[in-house]
Structure formats: structure tokens, C-alpha cells
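Checklist before submission:
- one chain only
- standard amino acids only
- sequence pasted in full

Submission:
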Amino acid sequence: MPSSDHLNTAVLLIIFNRPRNTQEVFDAIERIRPKQLFVAADGAREGVVGEAELCNEARSIATRVTWPCEVKTLFREKNLGCKKAVSEGISWFFQHVPEGIILEDDCVPNPTFFGFCEQMLSYYREDKRVMMVCGTNYLSEEVMAITEDSYFFSNYYPIWGWATWRRAWELYDPAMKGWEKHREAGQLDYLFPYQAIARYYHTMFDMITNGFDTWDIQWWYTCIFNHGLSVIPKYNLIANRGEQGTHTGTQGSFAINMPTIDIDYNKLKHPANVVPLRRVNELTYTNSHAQVVLVESTWVKVKQKIKSSIKNKVVPK
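Returned file contents:
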């Protein structure tokens, strides 16, 4: 853990109707004993039998704090849906703290995830080029052995366990007001040399304008059009349970319950430059979406690329 027996960085836990998942994530939080814990919960949906009881059970678990800790809650009486409940919960969090760690109830962190986030939040606090710190890395340990750095920069923005600053979240644009103009100008094609990424984001942003109920795609939009980078650790630090949820099925099964690996956050080797590691960036994208129909490449092709990259000690284009 960082400097004391308590985590100094505030943690936001976002929950809903999954007490079993909530318990597992809360157990991980309890082990690092944050000084501040925020819990945001959407309300039960009308007409869903038994959901109110599940929501109440999850809320009880998430606030069962046994260590010295300031606890704040935002418990909705009515169901707002994924988009509003999560995004407004994060906004509420940053009304109270300037930076913090965010976990949803199905994202189980490796113990070193918290220390890594705390170090990165401090290191890049004033660097507006960096907009988030991620805990998820979809690439294998063998592939990531190619780089000696402890993390890399990316234009991909995994939100399965992450951290950010108020200064970045204040830019969040849930309406994506400029998307029509950017789409007509073909801006994504200019921003992403690897055109499969541009096509993927184009499809995702169109989904939002067509009413898809989520919040994270708008965050990707915010980061991309503010030229923001994410920090992704060399090794995966989050196990996503993925058993059920609003958008279950939008990720391939390979991404569920990925193993985590400890990272020595007190001995980090920083990249020499704050720029995306392009080839790893592209492989991250292809790997994480290889089993989704929006992606051009098949998983077999991706595995062939990974196998070749390990053999030749280079990351494939």
C-alpha cells in the first residue's frame, strides 16, 4: 500500500442490484482501507420483482465499513438507467474530491491496482495530456514483456477499474454535441492511422446519437476530441466478472475473468515520452474487440499476430 496503512486516494464504488459482486469488490476495498469511500447506487426498476431487495442488500454491503473512513452515499430512489446513474454518480464524486479511483460492482481489482492509481494520479496531476488511469490491460504478459516500461499511453479508454481527475471529468460531454460536425469532416480518419479503430469509434458514437443507454462511450468521445491519453499498466490489474449487466455480451468471453498480475507501483519505470505506444495501442484495440462483430479481424488472426510478435520481439502493425 502507499505511504500508510490507509489508502489516501478516495474511492467511488458504483453499485446496483448485484450483492454477490458488490461483496467481492467491497472486500478488495476493505483490504486497502481508503480514508474516503463514496457509494453511488441506481434505484430499482419498476415492475422487476425482487430487484428492490437486491438493491438494498447491495447498499448494505457497500457501506459496511469497519475501519476509520468517511463514507458518503448517493442512493437513488428511482431508476435512472445506466447513462444518468453512472455519469451523475461520477460527477457527484468529483464535487467532493479533486481526483479519485472508480470501481463498478463487477470489477475486482488486484491489490496493487490502488497503489498504481494513486502513484499515477499524483505523477500526472498537472499534465492535461493525460485524462485517465486504467486498470485493465487486454494483452498477455508475454506480449507486454516487449516493453520495459511499467505502463504505456493509449487512445483506448478501458473503464473496468480506473481513476481520473476533476479537471478531466469537467470536460465530459454526455450529449457529444460536436459529433455530427466531426463525423461530416471525417475527423476520426485523421486522428487514427489504423482505420479499424476509426470505424469502431464512428459506429459507437452513432449508437449514442441513436439512443443507446450508456455513459462510457461519451467519455471516450470526450477524451478523443480533447486529445486525451489513458495510462494503461503493463499487466492487467482488473478481473471483470461479467456475469450479468446492462451491456453483457458487448465484450468477447476472452475479456471476462482475465488473470491479474501484481505491479510494483513503488518502482515504476516511466515512458520517456507522453505519446501513445502506437503498435501496442492498435493491438490493444484489436485484441479487446476481436470477438465483437464491429471488428474486421478475427481472433485467429490476432493470435497469429501475437505469436509472431513474441517470436520476432516486435509488436505487429
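Reviewer check: DSSP finds twelve helices and ten strands in the chain.
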